[in-house]
C-alpha cells in the first residue's frame, strides 16, 4: 500500500484537536450540572431543616432557618447562591397537630458565568424545594404546653 506523503502524521493532530473541541464543553457541562445538583440537594436539605425547626421552635424559626440554610449551602459547596425561605401553617403555627410548610427558593448561578457577567447579572437556575412537618405536642413555645405545665403531676400521678 502506498501512502501519499501529504497525509502522514495528520491523524494524531486531528484526534487531539477533536478531543479538545469536544472534551472541554463536555467537562464544563458535567461540572455545571454537578453544581446545580449540589444546589438542589442544599435547597432540599434546607426545606427539611426549616420545616422541622418551625414545627419545634415557631418563634425563632426564621432566624434558625436562615442559619441552617447558610450551613447547608456551604456544606454542599454552593456559597454564591441566593435563597429565600417562606413558611405556611395550616392553623396556628404553634398549635400541636397543625402542619408547617417551608418553601425554599434558591438562585444558583451557572458555573463560571458570574466572572463574565458580574454577580448581579449572571445567568442562574432557580431551584424550589418544599417540605411539610407536623407540630409536635412536645415542641417548645406552645401555649398548650404552658397550660399542661400548670397541672403538673408527680411520678405517682397525683395532682400537685
From TrEMBL:
<keyword id="KW-0812">Transmembrane</keyword>
<feature type="compositionally biased region" description="Basic and acidic residues">
    <location>
        <begin position="144"/>
        <end position="160"/>
    </location>
</feature>
<keyword id="KW-0472">Membrane</keyword>
<protein>
    <recommendedName>
        <fullName>TadE-like protein</fullName>
    </recommendedName>
</protein>
<feature type="transmembrane region" description="Helical">
    <location>
        <begin position="15"/>
        <end position="36"/>
    </location>
</feature>
<keyword id="KW-1133">Transmembrane helix</keyword>
<feature type="region of interest" description="Disordered">
    <location>
        <begin position="136"/>
        <end position="160"/>
    </location>
</feature>
Amino acid at each position: 500500500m502506498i501512502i501519499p506523503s501529504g497525509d502522514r502524521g495528520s491523524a494524531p493532530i486531528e484526534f487531539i484537536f477533536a478531543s479538545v473541541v469536544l472534551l472541554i464543553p463536555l467537562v464544563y457541562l458535567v461540572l455545571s450540572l454537578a453544581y446545580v445538583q449540589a444546589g438542589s440537594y442544599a435547597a432540599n436539605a434546607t426545606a427539611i431543616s426549616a420545616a422541622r425547626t418551625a414545627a419545634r421552635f415557631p418563634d425563632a424559626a426564621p432566624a434558625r432557618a436562615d442559619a441552617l440554610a447558610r450551613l447547608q449551602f456551604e456544606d454542599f459547596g454552593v456559597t454564591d447562591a441566593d435563597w429565600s425561605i417562606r413558611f405556611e401553617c395550616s392553623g396556628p403555627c404553634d398549635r400541636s397537630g397543625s402542619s408547617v410548610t417551608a418553601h425554599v427558593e434558591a438562585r444558583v448561578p451557572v458555573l463560571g458565568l458570574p466572572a463574565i457577567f458580574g454577580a448581579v447579572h449572571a445567568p442562574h437556575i432557580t431551584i424550589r424545594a418544599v417540605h411539610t412537618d407536623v407540630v409536635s405536642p412536645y415542641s417548645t413555645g406552645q401555649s398548650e404546653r404552658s397550660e399542661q405545665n400548670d397541672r403538673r403531676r408527680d411520678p405517682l400521678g397525683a395532682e400537685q
